[in-house]
Amino acid sequence: MQTSNRLFDDLAKVANGAVSTLVGMKDEIEALVRQRVDKLLADADLVPREEFEVVKAMVTEARAEQEHLVRRLVALEQAATKPRRHAATSKSTTKTKSAK
Question: CA–CA separation, 5 vs 11, rounded Å?
Answer without folding.
Answer: 10
